[in-house]
Design brief:
With 259 residues, the protein is mostly beta strands. Helix content is 3%, strand content 39%. β1 and β2 form a beta hairpin. The longest helix is centred in the N-terminal third of the chain and has 4 residues. It is found in: Secreted, Cell wall; Membrane. Causes loosening and extension of plant cell walls by disrupting non-covalent bonding between cellulose microfibrils and matrix glucans. No enzymatic activity has been found. It is a peripheral membrane protein. Its main location: secreted.
Length: 259
């Protein structure tokens, strides 16, 4: 069984299928091995306290994430590059466990609590791998009265995300901040570029969580995006995601997604 110190180490496997007679190339992401961690929960059955969070997904219900979500300890959160990743979690070695597992999406950070020992309240202190789950998700793997339970977890594809990647726009006339949501495949983003109808491809820098920014004047132009997955390194291009009259505060959906 993996140690807590090593539980952040993932072994990922990739495969490609060339579709003969065409140009399609499929890059797949398959589950990692199981690793040891612990899990707790925050909030109540409504999961209202899980809304927002360090990934910037806002209202998790209206944006399609539901209540099957978790905040990750910083060891797994990886400065926000873990936002959108999907994990199967099952309770082990506790009388409070239920059988089976549940699948959650990483939507928040569980920060360290240096005032408490990592074995007595500071559950998210490095180097611990820890999941602070929304209460409805936790109750699928254990009785909530347990408080904290040992778990086994593994990365899995986010292929239950349906439709294209969604881009939520914030910022101002000179600064475009884009939150990426509903990312399938490995679920994560390493790099983004934006292109207006009057520009070339502009490199976007990582702001925080699942957001990327471009310091450019892009109003009045239809926008396309290019994205690279953090885990698989696959790059896809979403053309003409937003029309020329796009507005800040709105979300636009592409026709493409990772596999």
């Amino acid at each position: 069984m993996a140690s807590l110190h090593d539980s952040w180490r993932f072994v990922c496997f990739f495969f490609s299928i060339v579709v003969h007679g065409g140009s399609a190339l499929y890059h797949g992401y398959v589950p990692s091995p199981w690793n040891l961690a612990h899990a707790t929960f925050y909030g109540d059955e409504s999961a209202s306290e899980t809304m927002g969070g360090a990934c910037g997904y806002g209202n998790l219900i209206t944006n399609g994430y539901g209540t099957d979500t978790a905040a990750l300890s910083s060891t797994i959160f990886n400065d926000g590059y873990a936002c959108g990743q999907c994990y199967q979690i099952r309770c082990v070695e506790s009388p409070w466990c239920y059988t089976g597992y549940t699948t959650v999406t990483a939507t928040n950070l569980c920060p360290p609590n240096w005032a408490q020992d990592s074995n007595d309240g500071g559950w998210c202190n490095p180097p611990r791998a820890h999941f602070d789950m929304a209460k409805p998700a936790f109750m699928k793997i254990a009785r909530w009265k347990a408080g904290i339970v040992p778990v086994m977890y593994r990365r899995v594809p986010c292929n239950f995300k349906k439709g294209g990647i969604r881009f939520s726009f914030q910022g101002n006339g000179y600064w475009l901040l884009v939150f990426t949501m509903n990312v399938a495949g490995a679920g994560d983003i390493k790099q983004m570029w934006v292109k207006g109808t009057k520009t070339g491809w502009i490199n976007m820098s990582h702001n925080w969580g699942a957001s990327y920014q471009a310091f450019a004047t892009l109003q009045g132009q239809a926008l396309s995006f290019r994205l690279t997955s953090y885990t698989t390194k696959q790059t896809i291009t979403a053309y003409n995601v937003a029309p020329a009259n796009w507005k800040l505060g709105l979300t636009y959906q592409a026709e493409v997604n990772f596999h």
